[in-house]
Write a structure and sequence with these properties.
Elements (H helix, E strand, L loop, with lengths): L3 E4 L17 H9 L7 H11 L4 E4 L6 H15 L9 E4 L3 H14 L7 E4 L6 H9 L3 E4 L1 H9 L10 E4 L2 H6 L3 H9 L6 E6 L4 H10 L4 E4 L10 E7 L5 H12 L4 E4 L3 H13 L4 E4 L5 H12 L5 E4 L1 H4 L9 E4 L6 H8 L9 E7 L4 H11 L5 E4 L5 E4 L11 H4 L30 H4 L13 H6 L22
Parallel strand pairs: 1-8, 2-7, 2-8, 3-5, 3-6, 4-5, 6-7, 9-14, 9-15, 10-12, 10-13, 11-12, 13-14
Antiparallel strand pairs: 15-16
Helix pairs in contact: 2-3, 3-4, 6-8, 14-15
The protein binds adenosine monophosphate.
Adenosine monophosphate (AMP) binds next to helix 3.
Length: 484
């Protein structure tokens, strides 16, 4: 498939200033204003190819600088091509609201010196302002698939003049069940266009989609596929499920961890853990698909500005979280899908910075750790951990640990509500639950779930649980003042 294959490592110095890649001074100065002195490897390889009009297949992990890799040449090409009577000329599809918002912010930052109009569309918010923006005319749309289709079906978005399509984090889009929406959107695009396809992992379905879209692409790979960045130190701690919360509190306090992103498997679990940490004296908030857009944005902002110390997130909500220098990522429960582990820990060690990823593993989860190690092609050392947070000896691993019962942990069918769309819990309403899954009441039992049986991911997306109530002592605790 690919005409050219370029392998490189993340953020190795290339000593090639942005101007030599063919970018115009206005764009170079916007990049310089962001503090970038030289392109990352994916930028050095992808920018000239995109400027030439080539299709690109980017095997890029999070934190490699892929957003600038496609945004900079895209802005340049659009600023040089003809305005199409208010119709958008570039479409960037992203799996989540957070990622879409973040990509759009990059477009705004990098595009300061060029006269282009862009907007970001996702579900869970009022559609009318989005319609008004489309009517005024746009050059670039950044969107999640569900809301974009909605706008197309209302005949408000016309994709007939799209010159460049970007699929960002394509693997996650498929994982979230967007394949049908993507196919529908593809039918609305002109046949002749440039395609830029980015994905951190390449399972069969992702490759099939890439093959069906791309034409003679330049392939740019910045880290071995399905591997994690070298900058991320990974450790796993063996601890019983019911002791995880206490141990985590102690690790955070004793280690004086300042900014910790914690992943839980379910929305309810995220709420509960945030509440418990808060009552342990560790400021925390939860972020997941049942929270309103404004609550998600506030939690993220509070976390970024160190107003809270811990952000407890589910996989989907955390997608696209980009925090420079995020030092710690914790898997409170291991994901049963190894690629999710890669995505999760990719939140740290970004832009060449060091990071630490810690996984709390109960005995039933050891089989997941083995699966993850197979994908990573490396061992993640497992140490004993006491509830007091004391790290002990390395654990002797058993050859083939038993997997928990399939019904409890296997990947759910892709029938969960769209996280970005009109159906999603983002509106704050409880969403429908796939049949046969644990009920909100079950999920809400006050005792911890049996280890290794935290329920399928669909429960995470559709448990309909409300946001965690504020802990009584939360308001009284002194916090740094909230930044304006
Ligand atoms: P991305 O992979 O696009 O999510 O980018 C990861 C992080 O790297 C973001 O915080 C970017 O602002 C940052 N970044 C992107 N390009 C560069 C560069 N050339 N030099 C330094 N940082 C960069």
């Amino acid at each position: 498939m690919p005409a050219k294959h370029v392998a490189a490592t993340r953020f190795h110095r290339t000593y090639m200033p942005f101007a030599t890649l063919g970018l115009r001074p206005e764009i170079v100065s916007a990049v310089t204003a962001k503090g970038y002195t030289e392109p990352s490897p994916i930028q050095a390889k992808a920018i000239p190819a995109i400027l030439e009009g080539r299709d690109v297949l980017g095997g890029a992990q999070t934190g490699t600088g892929k957003t600038a890799a496609f945004s900079l040449p895209l802005l340049q090409r659009l600023s040089e091509s003809e305005f199409k009577n208010k119709r958008p000329r570039a479409l960037i599809l992203a799996p989540t609201r957070e990622l879409a918002a973040q990509v759009h912010q990059s477009i705004l930052d990098y595009g300061k010196g060029v006269d282009l109009h862009s907007a970001c569309f996702f579900g869970g918010v009022n559609i009318n302002p989005q319609i008004s923006k489309l009517r005024r005319g746009l050059d670039i749309i950044v969107a999640t698939p569900g809301r974009l289709l909605d706008l197309c079906q209302r005949r408000e978005a016309n994709l007939g003049a799209i010159e460049t399509l970007v699929l960002d984090e394509a693997d996650r889009m498929l994982d979230m069940g967007f394949i049908h929406d993507i196919r529908k959107i593809l039918k609305l695009l002109p046949h002749d266009r440039q395609n830029l396809f980015f994905s951190a992992t390449y399972a069969k379905d992702v490759k099939k989609l890439a093959d069906s879209i791309l034409r003679n692409p330049v392939e740019v790979e910045v880290a071995p596929r399905n591997s994690t960045a070298d900058q991320i130190a990974q450790e796993a701690y063996s601890i019983g499920q019911k002791n995880k919360r206490e141990a985590l509190s102690n690790l955070i306090k004793d280690g004086d961890w300042k900014q910790v992103l914690v992943f839980t498997r379910t929305k309810h679990g995220a709420n509960r853990l945030a509440k418990q940490l808060d009552s342990d004296g560790i400021t925390a908030a939860a972020i997941h698909g049942n929270k309103s857009q404004s609550a998600r944005e506030r939690a993220l902002q509070d976390f970024k500005t160190n107003y809270i110390r811990v952000l407890v997130a589910t996989d989907i909500a955390a997608r696209g979280i980009d925090i420079i220098d995020l030092p710690h990522v914790v898997n409170f429960e291991l994901p049963n899908i190894p690629e999710d582990y890669v995505h999760r820990i990719g939140r740290t060690g970004r832009a060449g910075k060091k990071g630490k990823a810690i996984s709390l593993v109960c005995s039933e989860e050891e089989a997941y750790l083995v699966d993850i190690e197979k994908v990573l092609k490396r061992e993640v050392p497992l140490f004993e951990l006491s509830p007091r947070g004391k790290i002990g000896h390395q654990v002797q691993r058993i050859a083939n640990p038993k997997k928990p019962k399939k019904t409890a942990v296997s990947r759910p069918p892709r029938q969960h509500p769209r996280p970005d769309s009109r159906h999603s819990g983002g509106s704050g309403k409880p969403s429908s639950r796939p049949s046969g899954k644990s009920s909100p009441r079950q999920a809400g039992k006050s005792s911890p779930r049996p280890a290794g049986r935290p329920g399928p991911r669909s429960a995470d997306r559709a448990d309909g649980s409300a946001s965690a109530p504020r802990s009584p002592n939360r308001r009284n605790r002194s916090r740094p003042s909230r930044p304006r």
